[in-house]
Amino acid sequence: MQTFREKGKGVEPEETRTARNEGHALTLAERLAESRIGVVALRQDGDPDIGDMEEPVVLAIHGRVPPIFSDLPF
What we know:
The protein is of the alpha+beta class and 74 residues long.
């Protein structure tokens, strides 16, 4: 989960948050969207302990986020 705040005419990332599962990520994204300029809920499969991570998949986008997120698969 990545949230964004307004910075000048753009947006800047805030601290990344981790959800327990996809349902929790979607619920959390909706709640955070009420107080943030933008929120992206992502899923990324793999094993972070060995650095074997797949490309992130966008679960939901709320508000204004950087254009790079539109290039990721839904």
